[in-house]
Backbone:
């Protein structure tokens, strides 16, 4: 691990990152949602905005967009032909090449600002080759322990690695030890340090979330108290980036934000969420219980093998009327029997099924009118979920 490969690829491309104004976002949960809100508001403000996120749900091109338009297949091919000699020489990774592609694409399209989400970490993340204008930190919790470390402190140090010399950092509310690490790193870099104001009077609805921030009212199309917090962090970050954005423009941007796979209704009372760690799953379940306090919840759960199943288990224990376990067709997730056995050992009652389609059909037969269903655990089943419910998800503007 390291940044040398990405720097070498960018050197081959004549360092397109040096021409970009960048908002750099790290954290554990809410990075994508916060990035999407920032992007949406900046677009409403009239900026030409590049957005780089990962992973994708259906198509690779979702990761790299300018004003909502994904990079085209032709542009990907043209880039790959150009950079192929450097890739072979450096033996670079998928994410290193993808990051270089995004930065090159944004430079080619002369974006006014690029919103860049880190991959797994921060310090050694391929995106950390950029000189940002603003650093944003979403809540940090346990995830990717095989890469980032097995304690919250080790993970926080890795995430804090994106803090740049004298570049302002705005952070969401954090655990005390995490806050202290971020503050210390900011001080060492002479970086102005700001903590995001928390939203108040949060009202969660099936169609979105109302909240107040600094005596002003907002509505986001995203569902959940955690989404109100993500939107509040985005708003606080935007004020530091451009303090002349009108209130009406901020309202327009956060109300129109579209970020699929986040408590997304895919059918009547059936939701899909990519949550795959303890904090994400806790937030999603809490939101559903707030909206549907009298309902029983059915679950369809899949998980990658690198996730901390022990931490996740305590949040899903006794939360579901029936919990089905399955996997994806691509073989990237734990097999149903293996995940089921892990959960059984942890005292989680569950029923393994062979695939998404079977799980959904079983749940539909069991659901009563007041029941709800949560399909969750990973990005990697999005294609199968959307196909099952005949949801159109093409490569158009998002």
Residues:
């Amino acid at each position: 691990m390291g940044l040398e490969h990405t720097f070498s690829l960018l050197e081959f491309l004549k360092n397109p990152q040096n021409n970009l104004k960048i908002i750099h976002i790290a954290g554990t949960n809410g990075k994508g949602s916060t990035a999407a809100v920032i992007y949406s508001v900046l677009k409403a403000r009239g900026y030409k905005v590049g957005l780089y996120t990962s992973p994708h749900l259906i198509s690779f091109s979702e990761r790299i967009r300018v004003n909502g338009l994904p990079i085209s297949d032709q542009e990907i091919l043209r880039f790959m032909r150009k950079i192929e000699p450097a890739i072979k020489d450096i033996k670079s990774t998928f994410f290193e090449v993808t990051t270089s592609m995004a930065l090159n694409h944004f430079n080619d399209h002369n974006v006014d600002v690029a919103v860049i989400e880190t991959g797994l970490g921060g310090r050694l993340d391929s995106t950390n080759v950029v000189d940002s204008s603003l650093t944003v930190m979403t809540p940090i919790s346990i995830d990717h322990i095989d890469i980032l470390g097995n304690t919250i402190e080790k993970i926080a140090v890795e995430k804090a690695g994106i803090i740049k010399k004298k570049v302002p950092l705005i952070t969401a509310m954090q655990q005390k030890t995490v806050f202290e690490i971020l503050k210390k790193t900011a001080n060492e870099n002479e970086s102005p340090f700001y903590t995001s104001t928390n939203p108040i009077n949060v009202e969660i609805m099936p169609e979105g979330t109302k909240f107040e921030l600094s005596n002003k009212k907002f509505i986001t199309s995203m569902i959940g108290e955690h989404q109100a917090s993500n939107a509040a962090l985005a708003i606080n970050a935007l004020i530091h980036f451009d303090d002349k954005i009108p209130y009406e423009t901020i309202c327009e941007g956060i109300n129109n934000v579209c970020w699929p796979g986040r408590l997304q209704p895919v059918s009547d009372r059936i939701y899909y969420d990519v949550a795959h760690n303890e904090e994400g799953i806790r937030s999603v379940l809490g939101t559903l219980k707030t909206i549907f306090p009298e309902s029983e919840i059915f679950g369809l759960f899949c998980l990658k093998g690198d996730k901390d199943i022990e931490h996740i288990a305590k949040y899903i224990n006794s939360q579901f009327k029936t919990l089905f376990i399955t996997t994806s067709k691509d073989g990237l997730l734990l097999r149903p029997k293996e995940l089921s056995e892990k959960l059984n050992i942890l005292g989680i009652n569950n029923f393994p099924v062979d695939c998404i389609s079977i799980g959904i059909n079983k749940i539909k037969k069991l659901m009563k009118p007041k029941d709800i269903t949560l399909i969750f655990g990973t990005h990697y089943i999005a294609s199968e979920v959307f196909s099952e419910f005949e949801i159109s998800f093409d490569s158009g503007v998002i």
